[in-house]
Amino acid sequence: MTAQIIDGKAFAAALRARVGGVATAFETASGRKAGLAVVLVGEDPASAVYVRSKGKATLAANMASFEHKLPADTAQADLIALVDRLNADPAVDGILVQLPLPAHLDEQAVLLRINPNKDVDGFHPVNAGRLATGLPGFVPCTPLGCLMLLQDQLGDLSGKEAVVIGRSNIVGKPMAALLTAASCTVTLAHSRTRDLAAHVSRADIVVAAVGRAGFVKGEWLKPGATVIDVGINRVEGGLVGDVEFDSAACVAGAITPVPGGVGPMTIACLLRNTLVAAHRNAGVELDEAAL
Ligand SMILES: Nc1nc2c(c(=O)[nH]1)N[C@@H](CN(C=O)c1ccc(C(=O)N[C@@H](CCC(=O)O)C(=O)O)cc1)CN2
To answer: Where do the coiled-coil regions begin and end (predicted)?
Structure first.
């Protein structure tokens, strides 16, 4: 193995500490804590773990955490009514509805109901539009975390060839938009892409977000490429990413592990977005780029 391992866990811990310091200063300046409301519907075990982690991380960063746990058979109207109450609550700066929702609920309608200025997940189409057009808004946490890791690793990304594999609204599309804004030349590849290996072989940066264990092979990579693995696939023996780690680590210059790479950045960026929302809502100045 020759690749450097990108330690997302350590980077995320440092970001959470920085957010905690700024959150304390925010409380002094505004007379209240920044607040994050998290809504969990049902009992999906992985979602319950993520929601618990979010609550703990929020409190540890000196912000207020409001957890709303609803039964799996919650009606659409009741969930919408809760979102409306959170939209109107001045103690709540950020609202997050944990995904996936149970199948009977209309996810898009729920996400559309969140006030875009409290949409710290960055999933509302208004925030997607702001990202696409370079306006200030909220960027989805996982791609934002990937961008931070890439900039820490490579510095200026301008002119780099980047391939993003996966075109979801939550990761692939915003990731491509962020890399475009960072002046990369971006290919957004997906399940219908022909000769994916040829695209990947030209890339300085590969972001894999396809949701298929070990899908990207080491022999596809350009030697020295930086590989960001967004996949979290549960297989016998534990968690693996979308990249075949052992073969990729022999060719890449740097690679994120799974676990301990991109995953921890998701929650750290959620805290960051919540603190940004609090400053905007309270009219307290913040150097957002420095956070
Ligand atoms: N409303 C949202 N729902 C979901 C999101 C999201 O960003 N907003 N993302 C995922 C789940 N998620 C946070 O919600 C999340 C996933 C993974 C991790 C993480 O730290 N993973 C660890 C491994 C954890 C394990 O052992 O299972 C890692 O990769 O190192 C954090 C948050 C879907 N839903």
So the answer is: none
